[in-house]
Amino acid sequence: MKTLQDWLAHCEQLHPHAIDMGLDRVKAVAERLALHFEGPVITVAGTNGKGSTCAMLEAILLEAGYRTGVYTSPHLVHFEERCRLHGESASAEALAQAFAQVEAARGEVSLTYFEFSTLAILWLMAQSNLDVVILEVGLGGRLDAVNIIDPDCAVITSIDIDHTQLLGHGREQIGLEKAGIMRAGRPVVVSDPVPPDSLIAHAQAVGADLWRLGQDFNFSGDKQQWAWAGRGRRYSGLAYPALRGANQLVNASGVLAALEVLRPRIPVTAQAVRNGLALVELPGRFQIVPGEPVLVLDVAHNPHSVAALALNLDAMGFYPTTHAVFGAMADKDLQAMLERLGPLMDRWYFTDLPLPRAATAAQLQQQWQALNRRADATSSTHASPEAALQAAIAAAGGADRIVVFGSFYTVGGVLKDGIPRLHAKHLST
């Protein structure tokens, strides 16, 4: 294997299962790699809001002058997006070298694609002279490969029903899995406004320093600005984060709490907070691409995130017709998502996705037809997200709105050649 793509193809063949929960194999290889970080580590778990939380932490810490490393998953278009060093995606060459290090260390240990790539990115970060490391949990928390690293501060965002086959069928079970990233005597920031009892009980059982939204920190705001208060610090007159959506204030509040917790080690100024929140970017999270028609991109793929998307779409105002490009995994709660957005979407463009776990466009359409109560709504099926988007563009008027949502593969599929140019159709008319 020479290139990053060679290594990724190699990793896909190594283990008989795509997901194999457990840390023993990963820990064994990590010990051989002697992974170690000098600066503090922030680990972020949750059902929704993890990516936004990591992005805001990174943006503020970069503005404060720190050398940051961020690991997030999955990626939208390119694998390199999963590892950011000093605000930039790692190079394919550096990642290929990291994969080679893991291969040399693993011996006969069988690793899944996610485990292998996680170890490679952690190794690369450990070589990069970082001041602070931000790690996003891939799935759950307790048994996720990221959890081999002890965080100096854990952050747990909103908790909802997702991945029930692996994490449990209710918020209490799922919350306990997320709580597995907590460590005795170390701070954990919980930004879910109504956290499961199991999560709070686990924090008390392990003796974690619990920072809870509504008790240890809170926020308030009006249409112009917002304010935050923690145990001993306040920010007022803050501009809203550059990431759109009402739920982003909840995420930003958790971010400020985490930074307050780590202030003795990585202090940040109020100006760094203001600049970071103003400049933060994260593709695919209620991302609005202006044009005619306007384009909205959102990786909402479970009922909780789809409910947030619906509220954000309502707040955008009136559009004559809303066109929905949708593709998702078959194991998601498709009925709840389709029911929630049914009243808002006038034309549906269901898409196939390039992996076995995905529901086919025909299956999505069939489920929508069984739920649909609107005589004026229409639907069609397409072989790819790009084809679905092109069909939506061809049908849309200049004053309409196109919403691309669902799996990362759906949004990534329309972003792989860059932001789609929607203006061209209407410039000549």
How would you sum up this structure, described in words?
This protein has 429 residues and is α/β, with parallel strands linked by helices. The chain is 38% helix and 17% strand. The protein contains 16 helices and 17 strands. Helix 4 packs across helix 5. The longest helix has 15 residues. It is globular, with a radius of gyration of 22 Å.
Number of helices: 16
Radius of gyration (CA) equals 22 Å
CATH superfamily of the largest domain: Mur-like, catalytic domain
**Lateral arrangement of strands in the main beta sheet:** 4-3-2-5-1-6-7-8
Structural shape: globular
CATH-defined architecture of the largest domain: 3-Layer(aba) Sandwich
Taken as a percent bin, the fraction of beta residues is 15-25%
Number of separate strands: 17
What about the largest sheet? 8 strands, mixed
What's the average pLDDT?
Answer: 92
What is the end-to-end distance? 51 Å
Q: Examine the coordinates and then state which fold CATH places here, giving the name of the CATH topology of the largest domain.
A: UDP-N-acetylmuramoyl-L-alanine:D-glutamate ligase
- Would you tell me the structural class of the helices and strands? alpha/beta
What number of structural domains do the residues give?
2
Please give the CATH class of the largest domain: Alpha Beta
Indicate the low-confidence ranges by residue numbers: none
Percentage of helical residues?
A: 25-40%
